[in-house]
Amino acid sequence: MEKFVYIALFAPLLSSLLVALFAARPKMLFTGILASALIGLSMVASFVLLIDVNANGALHVKMMDWIDAGNLHVPFGFVVDQVSVIMMVTVTLVSTIVHIYSIGYMDHDKSFNRFFSYLSAFVFSMMILVMSDNFVGLFIGWEGVGLCSWLLIGFWYHKHSASWAANEAFIMNRIADLGMLMGLFLIYWQIGSFQYDIVFAAVKSMDITIVTTIGTFLFIGAMGKSAQFPLHTWLADAMEGPTPVSALIHAATMVTAGVYLVIRCGELYTLIPHIGFAIASLGAFVAVFAASMALVNNDLKRIIAYSTLSQLGYMFVAAGLGAYWIALFHLMTHAFFKSLLFLGAGNVMHAMHDELNIKKMGGLYGSMKATAILMSVASVALAGIYPFAGFFSKDKILEVAFNHGAYYLWFALFIGAGMTAFYSFRLVMLVFFGEKEHPKYGIHPHEAQPFVIYALMPLGLLAIIAGFFEHSFEGFVTRLLSHYEVHLSHGTEWALIAGTSAIAISGIAFAIYMYSRGGFSKSLENRACYKLLINQYFIPKLYAMYIMRPFTVLSHFIWQKIDVKIVDATVDMIAKIVYGTGTKTRQMQNGNLSDMLRWMIVGMVVLLALAIFYRPMV
Amino acid sequence: MDHILSLIVFFPAVAGLLGFMVNKDSARAYGISVSAIEFLLCLVLWIGFDGSNAGYQFVEYSPLIPSIGMSYYLGVDGISLFLALLTSFITMIALISLSIEKDVKNLIISVLFLEMTMVGVFLILDVILFYAFWELSLVPMLYIIGAWGSAQRLYAAVKFFLYTFAGSVLMLVGILYMAFLYHDATGVWSFALPDWYLLQIPFDTQLWLFGAFFLAFAIKVPMFPFHTWLPYAHGQAPTIGSIILAAVLLKMGSYGFVRFSLPLFPDAAVYFLYPIAIIAIIMVIYAAMVAYAQEDMKQVIAYSSISHMGIVVLGTFAMNAEGITGSIFLMLSHGIVSGALFMLVGVIYDRRHTKLMKDFGGLASVMPGFATVYGIMLMASVGLPLSIGFVGEFLSLAGFYKVSWIMTLLAGTGIILGAIYMLTLYKKSFFGEVTHEENKGLKDLNGKELTALVPLVALVVILGVYPKPILTTIDMSVKKMLVLMEKKAIDPNTSKFIINVNSIGGTK
Amino acid sequence: MITLTHYLVLTGILFSIGLVGVMRRTNLLMLFFSTEILLNAVNVGFVAVSKYYGDLSGQMFSFFIIAVAASEVAVGLGLLILWYKRNGSIDLNSLQMMKG
Questions:
Q1: ipTM here
Q2: Which residues in chain C are closer than 8 Å to A590, comparing Cβ atoms?
Q3: Which residues of B120-154 are buried (b: 16+ CB within 10 A; e: fewer)?
Q4: What is the average pLDDT across A221-235?
């Protein structure tokens, strides 16, 4: 089975390297096909491993040593257990589809080959992230996906906004990574190892304050990758990247790495429920906070990005409250329907010639039936309507919050569910139904190529049926993750399901009702709360005003005032004093005999004075 | 193999002397072959090096002036081996990439002499000769900056020379006083470093001697606030000067800390640990912010060197195997990465005769190969895992975490600030539309430049993925040094401190 | 009664006069005079002290000084005349060929 581990891991790397050879050349179709095939191979290997893990349990592979200094030993080791194999399957499945989809989507791009190289490199990094058996290995993948995200957000680097967003994403992630590094250092000096099994065995007997610190530091890392408040602004800006990238990286896989980390460290976080609760609270806050921004936004991709943010909040609620398998389940189902939603949005963008304002679309159902159906399916799944995938996973999370007695969290999530349903269908309505706005802009939309639609079919299918695997999924992953016991009576459970479904359906109904009659009146746009939401609570502006600008000003001040005017000027001043003394005293040597005689006498007097007053030897 | 160290030290100088007779047109080829042979000799040294022996190897000893204990004493251990290797490698690569036409013969001879002094500093074990090599290294560099630099070259050259020279004079006093102490204790004169290692020095004396050595090393590193010669030197030096300056000359300072300050004066080193750590943190943050404010591409990299050297110093003063091994590895990785970055700036300077970022923009579409190599080096510079930059930075910071977590956190902001200024540089120069007409016709990397850069890229990746052979060799010698420090410390608290920071458990 | 102190005071006064002359005068000839005064001040001192101790070496030394001074003046005056013939001035400030 070892060789399947290596195939799953290195096929994407091979793909990336092979395609990179042609990166500078004009478009070559075979690079896309080769990359898709190799990622597909990785997916097959992952499925084989899934079956194997199901039958024979976890697999542990140590490839070679990496860092070795002092007491610190880090190997390249990989573990394929119930959690990582689920991640592998999810990642490779979505990646394969996104690769195939991109062949169509990037068709006209002159950097076609380069795109596939980056995309495969991302898959490789993500595989390292989920497969590593130690924290430093995870950190490799962690930074690796950050790099690929940087490359891919800034893929159209000639656009200022794209390269700006890329840098913002990288730097925000770096801030969080520092927190994670600190956590790693603390783990090392406490335990002397980075291996998951050793660490999780050791934390059980450790001082609880230290475990708390470790948990906090690691979660700071997770906050950056998963774009949790206050490090969330990069995710919406990251939509500057090509849409397949948004689907793969900024919806399905990379952003869920933070959730994966918390799930992976479940054994650590169960020891510190107060931190877990804080994580859950933050998650609930983000769930509502992000959903509220999605309510009013008019940018097709940003709406879905905020929705991703919001769903990540749901996952953190589950993970924070100790329901790790439920968080993982929602992670998986979310990956399916959210990437479907994004890829559908990509089709729309293509049809609309990269127009993103949903107010300018409308009535696209006529020309893009397949895409419309697929996106509607994804939206229903996202809204959490039975029997679609989102229903099973999201409902479970609400149940967990209620069961935990965290009624505030539950209520927040409950409201969030309603908002989710509303904005999803606001989007569907404005894009596919209602008045046709696009002819005013001279755009004639057309459906995407057939193979693109076929590539999306599996995702559509999974968005519908993935929920039914709930029990087998639970049975599989809880061999590793802790069980979560729900102590609610059947009646309460049913009431919760009914309540959640009711608010979701009413959200959908409200959206359909409002937008089928032309939407809200314009006067709403002058309200303060609308302004607040459309400007993302003014947070990006605040960051620009109070962090970026002062930093720039301070940097210039340090350089021009302190470095040049003080530090360097001091050095130059010392040199000038020496030099100036020389120039001054040079006049003693003016060649004038009588001056010399005078100096001679001065010297004589000084020597005499010395001889008289300073006689240490006597 | 008996005299391989002498051969390595003096071969470049002898070849440099012979170089005066070489025809001007073949000077470049001559320089490259000499430096390549030197590199091969260093490789032979590495192959012959016994990785399981932590002590000095290939030792050559012959008394020079026995009456005052001066001797010709060469030896190599895990700490100096790779620095010598780095020196010869970087010199070779820098000569390959050389694009100066004017007076190229004299330039090459200067570089070869410089190589001798640098290798000499790392391999010599007699302190007086160490001092001689240390000071001699200034002379060729003075010529390189002063003769082949840009407009303000004389100011920069003189500043570089006088600043570093003034700093090391105090070290000479320290050296002489050390010898005097040794004579007092044993009755014989000796300037041999291994002899000095065995000497226990009273606490107060240690503090003074530490200070005397510290100034010389701090200026060389360069530590805040003694760093201001560096931006001028880099700003005015020709590309080859900057490469060698950043890659090797700065490492002489940090090597001095490891070789002299720590093992000779362990109590003083522990005593001064926090002030030095604070300076190192200031270096990291301050230089990173200044780098962010720069408009000149080369100055960004010059200040980034200061920032990275801050982490080197921090790792060194972590006083544990992880930190010191990490800091030595970081010296190597910074040598390779900053050398490559300066070379890349030279590539674009050769084409456009400007280094200002506002004159570029959109280079990624005009020069994709250049942008790729630049991107790789940039990522190595910000310490991306699986690149060479990560290993040293990770180990240095990890080592210092044991001493103080809050200081590590502050120094760790360097990885954020590093990303900020590097990515800003990359965005300004490579991304966006091509706005300047002159940039549209720029040629991508040519064969010569690729020959110089590809080995660097290869090393960045190979050593990032598999640093183990280097790390274990360094680690062995570092551990030996730590044992020595712990044993010879006067103050029992020092020994306790060293044992504590080297053991797992009990950290906050 | 004239004591050693009186002689030494005289020496001091003479020496000071000579010193002031050396410092203030710019005429080379005057400088020679001042130098002579300095030397003779010292001579007086030597002789007085020599008498006081009853040791003749002081007096012998002053003879040497007189002899050396005489020859020095001879050479010096010769040079001075030569200089005067060439430059028409024996002002010290005109003698600045060594100015750096």
A1: 0.93
A2: 96, 99-100
A3: bbbbbbbbbbbbebbbbbbebbbbbbbbbbeeebe
A4: 90
Q: Looking at chain A, how many residues does it have? A: 618
Q: How far apart are the first and last CA of chain A?
A: 94
3-state secondary structure of A352: coil
Q: How far apart are CA A119 and CA A114, in angstroms?
A: 9
Residue A202 to residue A184: CA distance in whole angstroms: 14
Q: How far apart are CA A140 and CA C91, in angstroms?
A: 87
Q: What pLDDT digit, counting tens, does each position of A255-301 carry?
A: 999 999 999 999 999 999 999 999 999 999 999 999 999 988 888 89
What's the full length of chain C, in residues? 100
pLDDT at A590: 75
Q: Please indicate, yes or no, if residue C38 is contained in any of the structural domains.
A: yes
pLDDT at B194 exceeding the cut of 70: yes
The end-to-end CA distance of chain C, in Å, is 54
As a 3-state breakdown, chain B gives helix, strand, coil percent values, each rounded to 5, of: 75, 5, 20
Q: In whole angstroms, how far apart are CA A145 and each of B384, B392, B427?
A: 11, 21, 19
Structure tokens at B166: 């003034």
Closest Cα in chain A, distance from residue C47 (Å): 22
The answer to the question of residue C49 being in a domain is yes
Structural domain boundaries enclosing C20: 4-90
Whether residue C97 lies inside any domain: the answer is no
Buried (b) or exposed (e) across A172-207, using 16+ Cβ within 10 A? bbbbbbbbbbbbbbbbbbbbbbbbbeebbebbeebe
| E strand or H helix that includes residue B393 | helix B388-401
- What pLDDT, on the 0 to 100 scale, is given for residue A95? 93
**CA dist B195 to B175, B263, B269, B382, B487, Å?**
13, 12, 19, 40, 15
Q: Do C95 and A593 touch (CB under 8 A)?
A: yes
Supply the pLDDT for residue A121: 93
Q: What are phi and psi of A231, to 5 degrees?
A: -100, 35
Q: What is the pLDDT of residue B507?
A: 57
Q: Domain containing C29 — which CATH number? A: 1.10.287.3510
Q: Please determine, for residue C100, whether its predicted confidence score (pLDDT) is greater than 70.
A: no
Residue C55 lies in a domain: yes
Paired strand residues for B70: B65
- Three-state DSSP class for B124? strand
Distance, in Å, from the CA atom of A265 to the CA atom of A4, rounded to the nearest integer, reads 25
DSSP at A194: -
Rg (CA), chain C: 17
pLDDT digits (tens, 9 = 90+) for C31-51: 889 989 999 999 999 999 999
> Other CB atoms closer than 10 Å to residue B46's CB: what's the count?
17
What integer best gives the mean pLDDT of chain A? Answer: 89
| C67 has pLDDT over 90 | yes
CB B178 within 8 A of CB B264: yes
Predicted local confidence at residue A533, as pLDDT: 82
The CA distance from B422 to B304, in Å, is 9
Rounded Cα–Cα distance for residues A230 and A223 (Å): 8
H or E segment and range at residue C63: helix C57-87
Contacts of B368 in chain A (CB under 8 A): 23-24
At residue A369, the pLDDT reads 85
Which residue of chain A is at minimal alpha-carbon distance from C35? Answer: A597
- Percent of chain C's residues with pLDDT above 70: 95
DSSP A73: E
Residue A600 CB: number of other CB atoms within 10 A?
12
Query: What integer pLDDT is reported at residue B506 of this predicted model?
Result: 64
- Interchain proximity A590–C100, CB inside 8 Å: yes
pLDDT at res. B438: 84
Contact B229 A190 (CB under 8 A): no
Domain tally, chain C: 1
Q: Which residue has the tokens 């595989």?
A: A127
In this complex, does chain B touch chain C, defined as having at least 3 beta-carbon pairs under 8 Å apart? no
